[in-house]
């Protein structure tokens, strides 16, 4: 530690929030990656959402480097770019695999036109159901209701992996809350270890730094601001395709609730880490693009939470017989 720069309570909180933000973003993708793997599909995610998000992370990272922001902001910016690439790669892989699988499926219309019934596992069941329906018309209604209930339960189990309990029920919220508390504890402990070992050091407040910057450094600050505002626009616009997709399909199937919970936590602590460092006007203006990009998306995350709640009990049309 540098004994020449005493730590203040707001600087300590800035470091703690920054560390929690790093922990949240590190674990952010894990729930969604597991959900995609469990489903062998990434159809619930909007690719436009991910691509615009990646563009925002790239511009944010470059801008934070040029603006000489606090190390946690720069570090997160670089990690975001790597994490986005991993998730986008997985989405493209599953989209490609599933598109090929669908293309190989024989057309039902073509099979009927040739007078043949597809020889698969469902054919005997269909024939047996038809025979039972013919001989037992009174049981047809109850049988249909039973199959619908069974498919709905199968949909619920298949779409909400047991490893994460991706529903909006009480158990799921308790587990997600526990995960968030755990990540906060890990982040706070990580900062304490970093500070105790001298890895993390207090950063001088903006008033302690010579404010006048001329020539090349001033032009770099302008470029950093432009990139910062570009990243804010990307962040604010990225979730719109996902929100529209959820609303159009009346479903959040394939999305991880914990993914968006951690996104909310990461954005909130990211902004808090910046603001607790200093509230001086020049400093806030300098960091304004990154504050807009982080705190502004919280509103959109809340909209997605509302969609999770609104669509939680609605099975997709394909699950209804």
From TrEMBL:
Reaction(s) catalysed by this chain's protein: L-histidine(out) + L-arginine(in) = L-histidine(in) + L-arginine(out)
Molecular function terms, GO-annotated: basic amino acid transmembrane transporter activity
Start and end residues of each stretch annotated as Disordered: 107-154
Location of this chain's protein in the cell: Membrane
GO cellular component terms listed in the entry, alphabetical order: lytic vacuole membrane
SMART domains, alphabetized: CTNS
UniProt-recorded name of the protein: PQ-loop-domain-containing protein
Native source species: Eremomyces bilateralis CBS 781.70
